[in-house]
């Protein structure tokens, strides 16, 4: 008997808690109206309060509802700030000193030095070169055509 499980759907959609607003949007509007209320009861003239309130309301509407490339405007602002305040040049740096291998005998040291200089490299045969060229031409998807095919194919 197979067990059946409910698979969650729409996990990337935030829950609507206060009417058509999510909890995050609702808190944005509450904070905005608290700031505008504080401005209204401040000693500023009412015209200055209204002039300051309009951009605050527009900014809150952008934060709450506007999406850029499927992401919230808040995430977009974070990406802009991150871009401007972080470095742009990426360089690979070796961390620490690479461990050195010490040879046990002078014969082994000489052999390693010859190998580094290319004196001990074995020449490639023509068939090996053709095989490597074939691998490069087929982007690594090489099937050995000389090998016998297994039964059933």
Describe the structure.
- The chain is mainly alpha-helical and 153 residues long.
- Among the domains are: 70 residues, no CATH class; 31 residues, no CATH class.
- It is 49% helix and 6% strand.
- It is built from 5 helices and 4 strands.
- The strands form 2 sheets. A two-stranded antiparallel ribbon has the order 1-2.
- A hairpin with a 2-residue loop joins strand 1 and strand 2.
- Helix 1 packs antiparallel against helix 2.
- The longest helix has 20 residues.
- The radius of gyration is 34 Å and the shape is elongated.
- The mean pLDDT is 81.
Derived from helix and strand composition plus strand pairing, the structural class reads: mainly alpha
Q: Report the sheet with the most strands, covering strand number, pairing sense and barrel closure.
A: 2 strands, antiparallel
The overall average pLDDT, rounded, is 81
Shape: elongated
SSE arrangement, N to C: EEHHEEHHH
How far apart the termini lie comes to 37 Å
């Amino acid at each position: 008997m197979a067990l059946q499980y409910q698979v969650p759907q729409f996990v990337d959609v935030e829950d609507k808690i206060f009417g058509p607003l999510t909890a995050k949007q609702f808190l944005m509007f509450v904070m905005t109206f608290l700031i505008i209320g504080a401005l209204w009861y401040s000693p500023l003239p009412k015209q200055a309060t209204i002039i300051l309130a309009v951009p605050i309301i527009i900014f809150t509407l952008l934060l709450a509802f506007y999406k850029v490339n499927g992401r919230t405007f808040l995430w977009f602002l974070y990406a802009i700030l991150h871009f401007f305040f972080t470095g742009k040049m990426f360089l690979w740096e070796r961390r620490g000193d690479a461990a050195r291998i010490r040879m046990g005998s002078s014969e082994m040291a000489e052999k390693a030095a010859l190998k580094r200089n290319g004196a001990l490299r074995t020449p490639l045969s023509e068939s090996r070169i053709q095989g490597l060229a074939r691998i490069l031409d087929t982007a690594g998807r090489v099937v050995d055509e000389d090998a016998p095919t297994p039964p059933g194919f």
